[in-house]
Amino acid sequence: MKEDFLILIVDDSRMNRIVLSKSLTHEGYDFIEAENADVALKILEYRKPELILLDVVMPEMSGFDLCRLLKQQESTREIPIIFITTLDSPEDKIRGLELGAVDFITKPFNTAEILARVRTQVTLRRMYRTILETNQRIAKDLETARQIQRNLLPAQEGTIFGKQIAFEYVYIPCDELGGDFFDIYQISDNKLLFYILDVSGHGVASSLITIFTKMFFSVHSQSEDDPCHLLHRLNQQFFRERLTEKYLTIFLGILDLQKNLLTWSSAGQSVAPILYTDDYEEILTMHSFPIGLIESASYVNATCVFPPGASLLMYSDGVTDICIGDGIPIFEEQSLVHYIHTHKSPDNHSMVSSLSSYINHLARTDDFPDDITIFLLRRL
User: Fold this and answer.
1) Where is the Response regulatory domain (predicted)?
2) 371: alpha, beta or left, given left = phi > 0 and alpha = psi -120 to 50?
């Protein structure tokens, strides 16, 4: 409907306003008139037109000055302006366009030409409305999805297994929806399962893969407590479900509290978790293929002692991708081990907070190029 497209005519010539208003009425547009800039500003306080037809040469405040003022105000800067003026030098046209006008028509004007220019702006404005409404809807949906994804993470901090295991984490997605994910839960009287994963890319598709993976482990860990077999089944499931436009890297561990034994496997993990106690640090590294990359990929287990007092620091490659001057990474495996060696704390929160603060201090930003996840598990 053209009636929902309000046009403001600003011209000190009553005759020009009459000619323009008749032409716009004939075309079915709604309009409102102002005889000078002051009247136009008063109108704009309570009415927001979709387009302004603006004369340049007016008493007191010129059309150029009014345009400059409107483009400085948040409430009016997006309203398109077409200058209609007797000025016809290239310099005047350039000045008008540099001030933010979308078009420039020279008097005496041809009403057919003006209506053609108006129709163009109507089309562009309605496209802008559609894009704006779509973006607002997408932003709302992304915020809802982001909250759902966050709700699927473990509690911010806590203990499980009768307070025998404590965990803490920092999770900073670089977009509304991240490709990092992690989880921890009890699977039997003596065992708990935990993992940290990183899906290639970011956004909706990557976040859906994280949810799919969480559901997979929730179902299959009830009947399978072998990490390498779980990763093999997950890889096969990726190919069956045709999810291979994405791939993921993952570290998966099953801790047997009765035996003080951690059994773990890794799929393409580019960064290795660090197991440490008061006396030593150990990097849990393994070479293997990511999930969803090669259908025939196989996975193996490794084991290590995990006694009371031991901690496991897991992190995404977003941590080691952060660089300071000259592209020097803040952390590599050995420098992270050194940091742990010199900053060990018996308190999960203090350890994670100090590591996160150290990264922020050196990076001098909170706008990271990749998801940042730090997940610390400690046996009490």
Assistant:
1) 6-122
2) beta
Predicted TM-score of the model (pTM): 0.72
Q: Ramachandran region of residue 125, left (φ > 0), alpha (ψ -120 to 50) or beta?
A: alpha
Distance between terminal CA atoms of the chain? 69
Cα distance between residue 192 and residue 298, in whole Å: 23
The tokens describing 26, both together, are: 């004939």
Question: What is the CA angle 365-369-370, rounded to 5?
Answer: 115
| Structural domains of the chain, ranges and CATH numbers in brackets | 2-143 (3.40.50.2300), 152-379 (3.60.40.10)
- Bridge partner residues of 262 (DSSP): 255, 304
Q: pLDDT digit of tens for each residue in the chain (380 aa)? A: 455 789 999 999 899 888 888 888 888 888 899 999 999 999 999 999 999 999 988 888 999 999 999 999 999 999 999 998 888 788 888 888 899 899 888 888 888 888 898 889 888 888 888 888 898 888 888 788 778 888 888 876 677 777 899 999 988 777 667 788 999 999 999 999 999 999 987 778 888 899 999 999 999 998 899 999 999 999 999 999 988 888 999 999 999 999 999 999 999 987 899 999 999 999 999 999 999 999 999 999 999 999 999 999 998 887 877 777 677 788 888 888 888 989 888 888 888 888 888 887 777 766 666 788 889 999 99
Q: Which among 261, 269, 258 is positioned nearest to 195, based on CA atoms?
A: 269
For residues 114, 131, 78, 55, the Cα torsion angle rounded to the nearest 10 degrees is 0
* Residues in Cβ contact with 166 at an 8 Å cutoff, skipping those fewer than 6 apart: 157, 158, 159, 348, 377, 378, 380
